[in-house]
Amino acid sequence: MADVVSLKADGAPSPLIVEAADGILRLTLNSPPANALSIAMMETLKAEILRAGADKAVRVIILAARGKVFCAGHDLKEMTAHRADADRGKAFFEKTFALCAELMLTITHCPKPVIAEIEGLATAAGCQLVATCDLAICTDAATFCTPGVNIGLFCSTPMVAVSRAAHRKQAMEMLLTGETIDASNAKDFGLVNRIVPKEYLRQVVDKYAAVIASKSPLTLKIGKEAFYRQIDMPLEEAYAYSGRVMTENMLARDAEEGIAAFLGKRHPEWTGE
């Protein structure tokens, strides 16, 4: 992939390195060593995902990071600086957590699948970011934690994503102890899909992305939206809803083409309609 954007217009380093090729958009957090979710990082990441969601050329999004830490969560130095404000930082804290929620919802609502590529530590809101992505692939040296309880700040917003990705008791274990878990436990907990050796991480993630990018973009959009909508519905309601979704999907040109290609033993030609 060719590097598309790594500098801002003023020549300063961008919080993100943006690469695109063959329908795959790679967004690399570019603020080592912590790759913290500062206001600038969250605004930039949200804007790129929104843009990618509307870009027909993008089929899949990968979130990666430079350095030994995938993401250390919110920028505590940035937040602490606002304790000197007249309101002791209340307005800035509200802004930070609201923007973080907007970012996570932008990932969930994005019509394109989002894959997290994790090398190193994902902690607090960084762990939330991993849990929010549709798929997560990490190295065998990756680690994860929600350590807010250790500093008197329960990881309440990371809890929203982690409790929906991990099994309930494992999520509570992470939240109550603040302890770091390794890649193997993260997979057992349900936070990541696969663990691969460091030297093969990008290769494996790119392969997954390429496989997904080869599917009908309309079908991926329909399926991702339906997955997140039905998952918290009562069983009967989920079946009724998914039945309506499949009916509409069957009427799409891509479904007609895909089924005809399968029956005709040929490769489908997707139009996204």
TrEMBL record:
InterPro entries: ClpP/crotonase-like_dom_sf, Enoyl-CoA_hydra/iso, Enoyl-CoA_hydra_C, Mitochondrial_ECH-domain. Belongs to the enoyl-CoA hydratase/isomerase family. It comes from the Bacteria. Gene3D superfamilies: 2-enoyl-CoA Hydratase, Chain A, domain 1, Lyase 2-enoyl-coa Hydratase, Chain A, domain 2. Pfam families: ECH_1. Keywords: Fatty acid metabolism, Lipid metabolism, Transit peptide. This is Enoyl-CoA hydratase domain-containing protein 3, mitochondrial. Signal peptide: none annotated. SUPFAM superfamilies: ClpP/crotonase. The keyword Thylakoid does not apply. May play a role in fatty acid biosynthesis and insulin sensitivity. CDD domains: crotonase-like.
